[in-house]
Amino acid sequence: MAQTNTQKTEKNREQLVSAASGEIIIEFVKVNKWYGDFHVLKDIDLDVHKGERIVVCGPSGSGKSTLIRCINNLEEHQSGSIVVDGITLNRNLKNIDHIRTEVGMVFQNFNLFPHLTIIENLTLGPIWTRKMPKVDANDLAMKYLERVKIPEQADKFPGQLSGGQQQRVAIARSLCMNPKIMLFDEPTSALDPEMIKEVLEVMIELADTGMTMIVVTHEMGFAETVADRVILMDQGQIVEENEPGEFFNNPQHERTKLFLSQIL
Amino acid sequence: MATIKTMKKNAVTAPLSEISVLGWIRKNLFSSVLNTLLTFVTVYIIYTTLKGVWSWGIVDAVWVAENRRECFAINVDGACWAGVIAWLDNIFYGRYPREELWRINLGIFFLFMWMVPLWLPRVKAKISIGMTTVFLYPFLGGYLFAGGEKGIFMQVMLTAAVVCLLVNTIHSIIGVFSGRSLPEFFASLSNKKNICEKTQRNIFFGFLAILFVLIYVWQMSWNVERVPWTKWGGLFLTLVIAGIGIASALPGGIVLALGRRSRMPVIRVFSTAFIELFRSVPIITVLFMATTMFPLFMPQGFVLNKLVQVIIAVCLFNAAYMAETVRGGLQTIPQGQFEGAHTIGLGYWQTMGLVVMPQALKHMIPNIVGNFITVLKDTTLVSIIGLFDVLGMLRSIGKDLPWLGLHIEPLVFGAILFFLICFTMSKYSRHLEAKLSTNHHN
Ligand SMILES: Nc1ncnc2c1ncn2[C@@H]1O[C@H](COP(=O)(O)OP(=O)(O)OP(=O)(O)O)[C@@H](O)[C@H]1O
Ligand SMILES: [Mg+2]
What we know:
The complex is a heterodimer.
Chain A: H1 2-21, E1 24-35, E2 38-49, E3 53-57, H2 64-71, E4 79-84, E5 87-88, H3 93-102, E6 103-106, H4 118-129, H5 134-147, H6 163-175, E7 181-185, H7 193-208, E8 212-216, H8 220-226, E9 229-234, E10 237-242, H9 244-249, H10 254-263
Helix pairs in contact in A: 4-5, 4-6, 5-6, 6-7
Chain B: H1 16-19, H2 21-29, H3 33-59, H4 68-74, H5 81-86, H6 88-93, H7 101-119, H8 126-135, H9 137-146, H10 152-178, H11 182-189, H12 197-220, H13 234-260, H14 265-279, H15 283-297, H16 306-331, H17 335-343, H18 348-378, H19 390-397, H20 408-436
The complex binds adenosine-5'-triphosphate and magnesium ion.
């Protein structure tokens, strides 16, 4: 495991260089958000390059979920600008629907549709938003189910699967939309330890395909292996961002040191 | 959330009380002195009641007689079913012309034909079948029941309904035997393999168009005599009013419930006001308002018949009630389902139609069917404003000269009738719930 880790990080460095020169796919400029009086996001500035893998961590309530949910407009920001894949997020519903087809999202508690079978869960998006013929959608869904290693579960209902399997279905469901960006909001937090591994494996494989990923997680091992950049949030601000080696071994900010001492 | 586990253990013999009848009786009925006593008292009460009902309703009852006097002459202590039997046609059909009764029967038969596929396991596209039942059958049934001259609109809709019924039936028969839908079946007839969906659809629509033209031509020369609504009555009328009320309650309720949750203030306020208004008024008031005040709001010279007014009132009232049921169901759907749907790019209507409503409706089945049963029972109130529905008919038996004073038997018969209908509905809802349940564990 340790060996592969170092190999991976070396590979990542190369990609980091290429990523940094790549085009910007998500851009936050001075983004602020309030829930009532409560200031959740404070002057967030963030650029994400195409193919970059970013891990967001930070204490509970620091606004991590809110941050990534702004990217596909599950939450609306009140000031500043967010540009995703060249489209500025505003009240225009058409733009939002379009961005949502480009941005996949995986939630802590899966949010699969319990009344549909696994294969129907996967084909719903392609059939209804991509207007794909049902046969093609089924082929596509089976392809991704194989990729997350559960093709044999296709005809079951979500309630019949383990948590880890459900989360892998959720990942496959997003991938079926052929997104440019994948967001993960604590994808392993609701899982038992033995299931965490199977989900992380799928995510690592996905990272190897060059997908742009933003992952909120407390799995620091994952961050070290996969991330190009780690971001620490606290009280609605980005406190520190750095490539993982520096971030973990040589944290600059007091807050980061404290956080790392608590979590490691 | 029942957990399904298949664990094999060495089977241990179940305790006696779980398997043998005697064991069960001892455990549940005679476990203590008090229980034993209660058991005997209860058995005695049940016995005397049943015996009374049995001898009054069956043993001493009079089944054949010319009038009530004759009933008394044969047996004073028994029920006089002869009166009910003599009035059976009236109870079921009201004063609908006797030589036209076949139209009602045929209409009801068509309704069954339309709906039977919903119960057959292998038939596909059940939702479309259900929708066409609600939106197209009324034209077929309506014309059969009312008759008269057909306007061009009625001709088109009638044709559409007949085409739909035929297609439904063929589709279902094919479905039962091959498990395929009709368009798929057509595609498989042509020898081209891998025929694409578009061609499938074109062949199918071509077939529909030909059928439509044929039936349109045929129905032009086909007419049935007009039967004015004043002759409608009995169980038939009850079922017409309740049926329309039931069929419109769900769509109406869904629209109102969504309106109440809408982000647009005008729609939200209107829906809320509508729902609250109708829910805070008893249905009998709504019925009176509909028949006396409604005409006042209508333009001069525009006369709606009383039946239509009543039906509109019943529909609005039930839609308002159903809206609250639906809203309750919508609230059981966690926010995550909406978010999951949004992240795969589904818009508002798709999210509602494909993800939220199917789950919400499933949770709501017991309440929805409960509502339907209430609609059916509430319908009997129309007898108060002078329509001769089944209750009206049952009560007029006692005013009919030969059967003067015969009140109990008709009402008992009515009770049995309603029990049968409502019990079937609630049983069916249980069955539906069990069938649609996909929550194996969570
Ligand atoms: N809908 C809401 N209304 C009001 N306050 C909210 C809402 N959603 C989140 N908050 C608050 O905003 C803050 C940030 O929430 P957020 O979910 O982004 O935190 P987080 O960093 O993801 O935390 P966790 O690790 O617990 O998931 C929290 O203090 C939370 O209480
Ligand atoms: Mg969170």
